Amino acid sequence: MTNPPSQNRPAIHSVDEFVFSVPDLAVARHFYTSFGLDVRDEGGALALHTHGHPHRWARVLQGDGGPKRLEWLSLGIHAADLPRFDDLLHARGIARLAPPQGADPSGLWLQGPDALPIQLRVAPKVSPDAPGPRDAPPAPANVGRAPSRSTAQATRPLYLSHILLFTADVARALDFYTGVLGLQVSDQSAGIIAFLHTPHGSDHHLIAFAKSNAGGLHHSSWCVPSLDAVGMGAQQMAAAGYPDGWGLGRHVLGSNYFRYVRDPWGSFAEYSFDIDYVAPHAQWPAADHPPEDSLYVWGPHVPEDFIVNHELARG
């Protein structure tokens, strides 16, 4: 059971950064550069930016040779909420956590569901403050309107829309992310998948959860400005050697058009266009939807291993 929304409780406003490790940084560099991100070297890791945007959305660390692993989440909060979160953690009896090696020690560190280290840090809001751009083809005007294949620009995502995490217990994850972190449920389905937004305003989901045997990162989702950008992104990734994934299609929950590209570690990066937006403090009509509505309205059949978690459970 989740806690009812309240404007009197502190809430995170953004996924400030997600950090994960992979066996080979060179492979990660090729994948995310091909995807259209601005990939930078930073202290022996890779920093994932979007072109023209100052924010660092993610870091990719060199792992120990094992599977990809989500290492920690840094979640953005407003400065006025830092002491309120401090009080809330104390009242809930939630112990502080030592920061992982190499992590920023500022703010509040705690252990989330599935033993995931979580940082609450004061940071500018980078979740969107308005619906994403919706570029459409011009109206017919006695001239061809499609972009030229010979001059078409590469797809470059604009910003991080959301992340979807695996969890061993969706209900427990919802209780923590709503009751402690202040998020609000947008929609869910049959205890197997759930979507949450921030009351400070965000896309339909800032963080989502899918039922699995353990925690992990299923996908990161990146906003693009048109359906053409989704399709052209799929094409550019196939040309770069990443033809596998799911889509094009359209989701029911969130409404966005999508193409998921399978990464070298069995998880996904998503091109997303036209996702629903929840304005600050708006009351979204949340519901528990039937399983057939949990994934898509139209599109190809879901790959059999789409919800397979390739990460190892944390100790």
Automatic annotation (TrEMBL):
<feature type="region of interest" description="Disordered">
    <location>
        <begin position="124"/>
        <end position="150"/>
    </location>
</feature>
<keyword id="KW-0560">Oxidoreductase</keyword>
<feature type="domain" description="VOC">
    <location>
        <begin position="159"/>
        <end position="274"/>
    </location>
</feature>
<protein>
    <submittedName>
        <fullName>Catechol 2,3-dioxygenase-like lactoylglutathione lyase family enzyme</fullName>
    </submittedName>
</protein>
<keyword id="KW-0223">Dioxygenase</keyword>
<dbReference type="InterPro" id="IPR050383">
    <property type="entry name" value="GlyoxalaseI/FosfomycinResist"/>
</dbReference>
<dbReference type="InterPro" id="IPR004360">
    <property type="entry name" value="Glyas_Fos-R_dOase_dom"/>
</dbReference>
<feature type="compositionally biased region" description="Pro residues">
    <location>
        <begin position="130"/>
        <end position="140"/>
    </location>
</feature>
<dbReference type="GO" id="GO:0051213">
    <property type="term" value="F:dioxygenase activity"/>
</dbReference>
<dbReference type="GO" id="GO:0016829">
    <property type="term" value="F:lyase activity"/>
</dbReference>
<dbReference type="Pfam" id="PF00903">
    <property type="entry name" value="Glyoxalase"/>
</dbReference>
<dbReference type="InterPro" id="IPR037523">
    <property type="entry name" value="VOC_core"/>
</dbReference>
<keyword id="KW-0456">Lyase</keyword>
<dbReference type="InterPro" id="IPR029068">
    <property type="entry name" value="Glyas_Bleomycin-R_OHBP_Dase"/>
</dbReference>
